[in-house]
Structures are given as structure tokens and as C-alpha cells.
Amino acid sequence: MATDKAYKVLARAHNLSHKEAKSLIDKSLVLSGGRKLHIARLEIPTNSTFEILKPPKPHIIFEDEHILAINKPPFIESYELSDMFAGWTLLHRLDRETSGVILLIKDKSEFEKQAKQAFKNQAVYKEYICLVHGMLADSITINKPISTIKKGFAKSRIDKNGLSASTQLTPLSIIGKKTLLQAIIHTGRTHQIRVHCQSINHPILGDRIYGKPDSAKRLMLHAHKIALLGYEFSAPLPKEFD
């Protein structure tokens, strides 16, 4: 049976460019044989058929003249939000597969200066929920420096010569051989929670970079709550966490 890379088969079947087809697969918006495709370069039969799903829409949590709080669905790049909400610019970012609260602000405003200074001074409360492999019974604070290499895509690691990073993990419940955790970060290094969880042998489910093979259909990491400058916003857990 003839095979080819999934994004090429999809592109031919639906008259898409290779870039468009790859983007749809990367966003987990393509079904083949009733199952989601996650790897654009996966070899599949050339006669495969596909169903293309509609991307989920971000939900506005709060908006005033200073700040726009969005509940970001997984598989949407943070920078895409600036295109969706004209007149607003990103204050910070979330990984593509991470869902939850993300903030946008008015560019070149006095509030923008104050908000960026709050992030710089580590005066922002950032709480995440994640589901990890293994059973973690006790709370733990991880203080391990992290360095990041950006060559095409970012990848971080524990590095004694890296930037300081602090993550506080608190178990919420143990489900089988998995643990639902609250993760509070006091710094904002690239992939910080993912790298710190891996460093204690409890990688996050669905983590294709730092984790191990599992059946999760997304990275099980959710930005649950954020607070700064008198504002506080939260986003409920997606149904995947139920």
C-alpha cells in the first residue's frame, strides 16, 4: 500500500498548501479514521480520508479600558490572539497546547508599563493545574535553574548556569497512577512547569517534548488563575481534566 507524509496526503485531498495542512494537524484539528492526527510527518496511506474540525474560539473573561482577559483554548498560538482582538497586544504568553487565562493590554499605555514591571518584579500570581504521571503525595517546591535554546523551536533544560526558576507543586488528588497538581510559579521561564515536573520524574501527560508516550490528546496543563495590579482572573478546568 502506497504511503506518504500525513500533511502531504491531507494537502492533496483538500486542496491545501503544505503549510496549511501541517498547521491543521499541529493544532489537532484533523481526524482520519475517527482518530486525531498529531504528527504531520507520520506516514499514512495515500488513500486516507479526513475530517477537518473547526478551531475552538477563545472566550472573553473580562475587558475594560486597561486589560483583556481571555480563556485560551489549547492548540492556539498566543500571538494569534492579537490578530483576533484588534487593538490589544499580548502581555505574556502560554505554550500552544496550554489552555487557560492569558492577558492582553493596550500597547504603549501607562498600564502596560506597570504590568510589565509587575512581571519583571515577580509581583504576579500565576497558578496552573496539571495532570502528571506517577503519584506525588506531598507538596514540593522546586528551585532549579533553567536554560533555553531556541533553534526553530524552544527547548529548555535544568542547567546550573541557567536562570533561576521556582515552582511550587501541591497535590490535589491522585487518580490511579496519576496526580492532579496545583503549580504556582514565582518565575516565568520557558516551559518551566514542564521541565520542573520532568526533573522529579513526574512529567505532564501529553507532553511530547519532556514527557513519555501516553494516550493524552493534549498537554494536560491549564493556566487556572492570574492576579496583578488589583486584578484577578480565573478560567475553569477544560472537560479533558474531568
TrEMBL record:
Gene3D superfamilies: Pseudouridine synthase. It catalyses: a uridine in RNA = a pseudouridine in RNA. One of its GO terms (biological process) is enzyme-directed rRNA pseudouridine synthesis. GO terms for molecular function: catalytic activity, acting on RNA; pseudouridine synthase activity; RNA binding. Residues 90-199 form the Pseudouridine synthase RsuA/RluA-like domain. It comes from the Bacteria. Pfam families: PseudoU_synth_2. Belongs to the pseudouridine synthase RluA family. This is RNA pseudouridylate synthase.
